[in-house]
Structure formats: structure tokens, C-alpha cells
């Protein structure tokens, strides 16, 4: 039996999806124009689809799981479960208006025309705010709508904001923060769930490794205690004597978030020759 995974055929999520599988040690040949491919070393079959279709395929159990943006998951509102955040494909769904427009708050949108490819998410936002506005659904190039008089405002995906800027628009409201997630069919058979658990175990190990660094440093023995107290480590740091009398080598794992803070403190406490090495996989 194989776990069937749907990923984007081409577009912004394709490369990161393939890379994640690779980092999980799963080899998938990506023949151009192929609809599906088998992994050679994991019971996995990969379907290459348009991202918009992925939630439907997963709901219908044509695919067991999928990698897709949260924006698409919420817009399509299919009966699927979100099993894991994948950490790539980060963007936000935002409202933008003409650069010169005064925007005192969401009330601005009352009675206005909003162009978007996300009518479901936008109408939910308007409903929550108690605002009545007209939603004009268009499938692409939403950002040109205000300029050609088609709408007063737009709601579209933004990452850097440069597309908005080039079209004379300004971002005024973020209505959803999005990233790629792993979705699964709600009635997954136990054997498939077991395969998914194995895949999730690997995905977690890859993600954890990305957020951590392996740190090696030299410490004078009289400072060892203080230096060790600064290091969280997986259990406790490894301490090895150096050839030079009175010095030790200390190895530990540091989280990206606290990384610079701790490095500064280590230096101040007398650590020398600090080496920072990326970690490929991390299983705790
Ligand atoms: P398809 O042909 O599969 O329908 P598409 O044109 O709808 O592709 P892409 O532009 O490739 O989709 O975007 C796929 C997903 O990438 C989006 O749904 C979103 O989750 C994510 N994404 C990340 N950053 C951005 C961005 N700046 N603009 C648009 N999408 C982004
Ligand atoms: Zn799409």
C-alpha cells in the first residue's frame, strides 16, 4: 500500500514541496508533464496538480494527503484536516486600496466594491466586521482592478508588497497569514495513518534541524561551569579535554531564536574559537 500525496504541479509551492521530500530522504523523479510519480524508497505516490484542486482531491480520497497553502484550504472550505504546518510558502492575504486614499479602518469598505480571487475568505472577514460590501470575483491580475475602475479595493496575496506598490496601491489590512500546510483526508485508514506518521516524523526532524545549530567552542576549564550553564543542549553539552592543558572543547545544540544572545554571552564568559555548524536532521 502507498500513501498518495498531492503537490502543486508548477508554481510557487512546487520546488519547496519537492525539496522537503528530498530532505526527508524520499526520492521522487519529477518528470516534466507527468501526472504522478512513485517514490523509489518510501511507500509514497506523488500526484502533480493545480493547487486549487488539491483540497477537493484530498476530501474525495483520490489523494490521502496534500501540501497546499492555508489560503487555498480556507477558501475552498473542503472537509479536510490540517495535520502540520510546513514552514514554506509564507504570504498574507491583504486588502489594498489606492495609495492616495484615506483608510481610517475597515469601515472604509462599507458599500465599496472589492475585487478578489478569495470571495469566501473576504466575505467571512466582512461578516465578522459587520460590513456590507460588494465582492467582485476575478481569477487573476487582481491588482490592476482599481486602476481600470473595476473596484475600489482589492484583496490579494502579498509577500513583499512590490506588486501592490507598482500598481499604485497600499496594503491597509491583513486578513489571513498563510503558509503551506499538510492536509489529510478525514477518514484516513489506520495503515495510511501509520505511513503518514512516519512521514510526519521525518518532516519534524527536518524542520527541527533547520531551527537549530550545532555549536562547538573552546573554554578555559575555570570558566567551564559558567559556560555550560549558558547552554541549553539536547541533554547536557558534550565536554572533551583539549590537547592544551587547562582547556576543554564544548559541543551543544542552540535554537535559532536564542542563538545570537547566547553566543554573545558565551564570548563574554570566555569562550573562544566558536564554530557554528548546520544540522541536517534532528531526532529528539
Ligand atoms: P496553479 O497553477 O497551481 O493554480 P497559482 O497560480 O494558483 O498556481 P501560485 O502563484 O504558484 O499559484 O501560488 C501558489 C501558492 O503559493 C499560493 O496559493 C500561496 O499559498 C503561496 N504563496 C506564497 N507567496 C505568495 C505570493 N507572494 N503570491 C502568491 N502566492 C504566494
Ligand atoms: Zn492556483
UniProtKB/TrEMBL annotation:
Keywords annotated in UniProt: Amino-acid biosynthesis, ATP-binding, Cytoplasm, Glycosyltransferase, Histidine biosynthesis, Magnesium, Metal-binding, Nucleotide-binding, Transferase
Pfam families, alphabetized: HisG, HisG_C
SUPFAM superfamilies, A to Z: GlnB-like, Periplasmic binding protein-like II
Catalytic activity: 1-(5-phospho-beta-D-ribosyl)-ATP + diphosphate = 5-phospho-alpha-D-ribose 1-diphosphate + ATP
Positions of the Histidine biosynthesis HisG C-terminal domain: 209-281
Cofactor: Mg(2+)
Compartmental location: Cytoplasm
EC numbers, comma separated: 2.4.2.17
Regulation: Feedback inhibited by histidine.
Job description of the protein: Catalyzes the condensation of ATP and 5-phosphoribose 1-diphosphate to form N'-(5'-phosphoribosyl)-ATP (PR-ATP). Has a crucial role in the pathway because the rate of histidine biosynthesis seems to be controlled primarily by regulation of HisG enzymatic activity.
Protein's UniProt name: ATP phosphoribosyltransferase
Organism field: Hydrobacter penzbergensis
Amino acid at each position: 500500500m502507498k500513501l498518495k500525496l498531492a503537490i502543486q504541479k508548477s508554481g510557487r509551492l512546487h520546488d519547496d514541496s519537492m525539496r522537503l521530500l528530498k530532505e526527508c530522504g524520499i526520492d521522487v523523479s519529477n518528470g516534466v508533464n507527468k501526472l504522478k510519480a512513485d517514490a523509489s524508497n518510501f511507500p509514497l505516490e506523488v500526484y502533480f496538480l493545480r493547487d486549487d484542486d488539491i483540497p477537493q482531491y484530498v476530501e474525495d480520497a483520490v489523494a490521502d494527503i496534500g501540501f497546499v497553502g492555508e489560503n487555498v484550504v480556507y477558501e475552498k472550505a473542503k472537509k479536510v484536516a490540517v495535520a502540520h504546518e510546513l514552514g514554506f510558502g509564507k504570504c498574507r492575504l491583504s486588502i489594498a486600496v489606492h495609495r492616495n486614499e484615506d483608510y481610517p479602518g475597515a469601515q472604509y469598505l462599507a458599500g465599496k466594491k472589492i475585487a478578489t480571487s478569495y470571495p469566501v475568505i473576504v466575505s467571512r472577514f466582512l461578516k465578522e466586521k459587520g460590513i456590507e460590501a460588494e465582492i467582485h470575483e476575478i481569477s487573476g491580475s487582481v491588482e490592476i482592478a482599481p486602476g481600470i475602475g473595476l473596484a475600489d479595493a482589492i484583496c490579494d496575496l502579498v509577500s513583499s508588497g512590490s506588486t501592490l506598490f507598482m500598481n499604485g496601491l497600499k496594503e491597509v489590512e491583513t486578513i489571513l497569514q498563510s503558509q503551506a500546510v499538510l492536509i489529510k483526508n478525514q477518514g484516513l485508514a489506520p495503515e495510511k495513518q501509520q505511513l503518514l506518521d512516519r512521514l510526519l516524523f521525518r518532516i519534524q526532524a527536518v524542520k527541527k534541524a533547520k531551527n537549530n545549530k550545532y555549536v562547538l567552542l573552546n573554554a578555559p576549564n575555570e570558566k567551564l561551569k559558567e559556560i555550560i550553564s549558558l547552554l541549553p543542549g539536547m541533554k547536557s553539552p558534550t565536554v572533551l579535554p583539549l590537547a592544551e592543558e587547562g582547556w576543554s572543547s564544548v559541543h551543544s545544540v542552540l535554537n535559532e531564536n536564542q542563538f545570537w544572545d547566547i553566543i554573545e554571552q558565551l564570548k563574554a564568559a570566555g569562550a573562544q574559537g566558536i564554530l557554528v555548524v548546520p544540522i541536517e536532521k534532528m531526532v529528539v
